């Protein structure tokens, strides 16, 4: 993706010769979910440069963590120790269509 960013920056510099402070480019965003409907827990979003067709980034989102589901519950004795070691796989909360807005406007 670093190479794609370099190509896009170079193509922008050709259109705007001289001192380019930042690259301005039109992008298209596409995303999909593992399943249709509210039962889907995993999705991916991809911004694509319109001029070159290169993928600029890939964002994965999940509102599910299997470790949280099967791990100790809040009232269990070893919950605090488990939480200190646990790396949660959930990086999104909410409905399936909302991450698209999050990806577009807020990034990670």
Unreliably modeled segments: none
Order of helices and strands: HEEEHHH
- The count of β-strands is 3
- β-strand percent reads 15-25%
Shape descriptor reads elongated
How does the helix and strand content classify structurally? alpha+beta
Computed CA radius of gyration, to the nearest angstrom = 19 Å
Task: Outline the biggest β-sheet.
Answer: 3 strands, antiparallel
Provide mean pLDDT, rounded.
Answer: 77
Q: What is the strand arrangement across the widest sheet?
A: 1-2-3
- The CA-CA distance between the termini, in Å, is 16 Å
Helical content, roughly?
A: 25-40%
Number of DSSP helices? 4
* Total number of distinct structural domains: 1
Provide keyphrases for this structure.
about 110 residues, 3-stranded antiparallel sheet, Mutator_transp_dom
């Amino acid at each position: 993706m670093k190479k794609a960013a370099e190509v896009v920056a170079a193509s922008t510099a050709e259109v705007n010769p001289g001192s380019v402070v930042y690259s301005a480019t039109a992008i298209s965003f596409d995303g999909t979910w593992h399943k249709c409907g509210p039962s889907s827990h995993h999705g991916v979003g991809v911004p694509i440069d319109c001029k070159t067709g290169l993928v600029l980034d890939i964002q994965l989102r999940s509102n599910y963590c299997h470790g949280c589901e099967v791990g100790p519950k809040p009232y269990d004795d070893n919950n605090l120790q488990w939480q200190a070691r646990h790396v949660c796989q959930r990086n999104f909360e909410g409905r399936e269509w909302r991450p698209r807005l999050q990806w577009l406007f807020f990034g990670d």
